[in-house]
Amino acid sequence: MWVRDAGPALAVVLMCGAVCAAEPARFTATAARQQAVNVLSSNRPLDEAQRALVERAARLTKLRESDPEAFVVEDERYLKDLEVLAERFADAPRAADLRQTIGNEYLTLGDVQRFQRRDLRRAAVCYERAHEWLDGHMRARATFALAETRAYGLDDRDGAVAAYRRLLGEEGQAIVAALPDSAPWTRWLKRAVHHARTGRVYVGRIGREDLAIGSLNAIAAGLTTSDVVRGLVARLKAHAALGDAAAVAAELRGLPPSPLLLLQTIPLLSLLRPDDAVSYVERNDPTRYWAALVMASAIDETGHQRLGADRGKPATFLPSTFDGVGPTTIDVAAATFARHTGITLDVAPFADAAATWRYFTDGLAHADVRRALAACEPYGRQLFEPKLRAMPPDALIALGRRLRDAVGVAAESDRVKFGVTSVGREPEYVVFVRPYRGEWLVEQGTL
Q1: What's the pTM value of the predicted model, to 2 decimals?
Q2: d(Cα 186, Cα 142) in Å, to the nearest integer?
Q3: Domain parsing of the chain, residue ranges
Q4: Residue-wise burial string across 164-185, b where 16 or more C-beta atoms lie within 10 A, e elsewhere
Q5: What is the DSSP string of 224-259?
Q6: Strands laid side by side in the 409-410 sheet
Q7: What are the phi and psi torsion angles at 334 (to 5°)?
Q8: What is the domain class of 353-446 according to CATH?
Q9: Across-strand partners of 435?
Q10: Could you read off the pLDDT of 8-44 as tens digits, one per residue?
Q11: 217, 280, 282, 372: which has the highest count of C-beta atoms within 10 A?
Q12: Are 20 and 29 in contact (CB under 8 A)?
């Protein structure tokens, strides 16, 4: 029985010992086999002690939804018993797994306190305990939950800043590693620190180069703390699937502020009335930076739909009223958000070559390579990026100013050519813009 329970590693060791005839190999296999037996034996007391708690854990899972008050009482007792085990078997080989189990259970209890019982102080205590027990990316989840509870529930600004700074450091690296673009993560954390210290919100410009819905989705996945949050989002999506937008709006209004929850519920924003959508994103992201990225993504997506463009990616927002011409509810919400906050959402798809050219040359004239490249299709980006990044800012500015007034003329294959002739030592520049997936983008040329 113990050989079966030992798993593949011990089975391989036993097979090696049986088939190897050479004396050194037999000695190695015997030593490895004995080490595996020792590991198994040292884990057995911990396994037996934990086995007695498995049935309690199953009952707790059922109790959590049916009776949160009773769940809290029972889960606190369960956690105390787990902590006793962790102290008793601190040197066991699988003690680290037990520590993760305890930390995850504290995350779950914290989410019940915050999202079901609305007891933010006890939730914060649970997240602090979770942070003490967890390692790796799970520790980052506990830190973020603690930070947003302190900042937006308890008005503990110093505590929130301390937690955000940990996430800007080593603790947040596990989240950064999973992101296609880390800018939305690091910029939001810095904005959160600034907001906690000064109360000031983000006011600025969001351009096409800042669009990062993939990173926002990855952040949401990386920070999800427990099945409590996943169950909450699933329930909201069930209301949406039944077409019950009023139930979605009512449940969202009743939840405590949470930037994480904002990212989890992005697809549902298109079901809300414009004023409700604006109120929801601002309440759940007081910094306004993630809120601005979300609203910018809405303009980008509905703009591509209106152009009949293939974005090459699934839709972010659930379908809402859209006749192919007029504004959608999320369009109206984004416009309302921009007017109310003073944030510029410069992300509309390029409906013609002239719009593309203005964006491209404005990027150059501001020495902003990211902005210029956002007007390029993949081949154009690959062609121009090395040269543009090698140019000093003053050269970029001069180039942008020189190209800005170039007039486009029709060229072959539905392309439009923009160019300036050589003057003195100034060379000739020619750039082509063409339709790409429904909008106009810079294709190639000589710079």
Answers
A1: 0.84
A2: 17
A3: 94-176, 223-346, 353-446
A4: bbbbbeebbebbeeebeebebb
A5: ---HHHHHHHHHHHHHHHTT-HHHHHHHHHTSPP-H
A6: 409-410, 416-420, 429-436, 439-446
A7: -65, -45
A8: alpha beta
A9: 440
A10: 433 333 344 444 444 444 444 444 434 433 433 456 7
A11: 372
A12: yes
